[in-house]
Write a structure and sequence with these properties.
about 300 residues, about 5% strand
Length: about 300
């Protein structure tokens, strides 16, 4: 597990660096297309560094605000608080994650934050109402595993970056549509290589960043499942929880494509047919539930 944690940290640093470079080149291209001249590279660097800094420190707050989560309390969510307290005995985390609850009928959960010292676990009211004690324990152990494995920072930052890149692409498309670019090659001092890279990234980055986001999520779900079993010593609790979550017909009201990969199961139910899906595709946010359950049953 320690090797996986080290690998995740290195992988996270590489991927965040790639996103920063991509955003820098995209902003550089847009600024030059808007005829901002030599200021383009300065503006591009400011935008990319600011977005990286904001994503690192505020991605969890942005995500919680998006889904309108409230802090969990002992008065309203005693069972949830007690299960987390019990798991903390074996979790070996430096600090107990903050608990949040989203008012939604779909049973689901996610973890976010920049590191185990600043971690958050968020669950829906549907999860609290529909899962038994050991099922809920399995779900919380899964989210604790994401925290222990340092998945939370990457998933949160990538979600913010994906949304930001899509926004940049959409904004530039609107500028093009309304004819907002100056067509003047006489004073164009932009680096042609950077301009070409910026244009390519502007066109393809939303697709590649989404694929990267989905691939990372699928790979890390299996590791979180197996780590959860190490914490609970009860694979059946998580297996039963996954079956209930996958077969629940409700769709998460505040889910969006940028954050869907963070949840324990896909929040989009495809009109109730998701539970019948046996395999995952390149566009899947999660490995298929049947594959995850089979992997859990094979744990010895």
């Amino acid at each position: 597990m320690f090797e996986n944690i080290k690998k995740n940290k290195i992988e996270s640093g590489i991927i965040v660096s790639i996103f920063i470079l991509a955003i820098t080149l995209i902003i550089y291209y847009i600024c030059h297309a808007l005829d901002l001249g030599n200021l383009s590279i300065v503006i591009a660097l400011i935008f990319s560094i600011t977005s990286a800094w904001g994503s690192y420190y505020y991605s969890d707050k942005i995500i919680l605000a998006t889904c309108k989560a409230r802090p969990a309390t002992k008065d309203e969510d005693l069972k949830l608080v007690n299960i987390l307290d019990s798991l903390m005995i074996t979790a070996n985390l430096p600090k107990k994650p903050d608990l949040y609850v989203v008012e939604d009928a779909q049973p689901n959960a996610f973890a976010t934050g920049r590191n185990p010292n600043h971690a958050i676990i968020c669950v829906t009211t549907g999860l609290l109402e529909k899962l038994e004690y050991y099922e809920l324990e399995g779900v919380l152990a899964h989210e604790i595993s994401h925290i222990k494995n340092y998945d939370i920072l990457l998933s949160a930052v990538v979600s913010i970056f994906v949304g930001f890149i899509v926004m940049l692409s959409d904004t530039f498309s609107r500028i093009l549509y309304w004819g907002g670019l100056k067509d003047d090659d006489d004073d164009n001092n932009g680096n042609p290589i950077l301009m070409i890279l910026g244009l390519i990234l502007l066109i393809l980055a939303p697709i590649f960043s989404s694929l990267m986001q989905l691939a990372l999520s699928r790979k890390r779900e299996f590791l979180a499942d197996s780590t959860a079993v190490e914490l609970t010593r009860n694979p059946q609790g998580l297996i039963s929880a996954l079956e209930k979550l996958e077969n629940d017909p409700n769709e998460l009201k505040r889910a969006n494509s940028a954050t869907a990969n963070m949840y324990i199961v896909n929040p989009f139910k495809n009109n109730g047919k998701q539970g019948k899906k046996k395999t995952s595709s390149i566009w899947s946010t999660h490995p298929s539930t049947s594959d995850r359950i089979e992997a859990l049953r094979n744990i010895k």
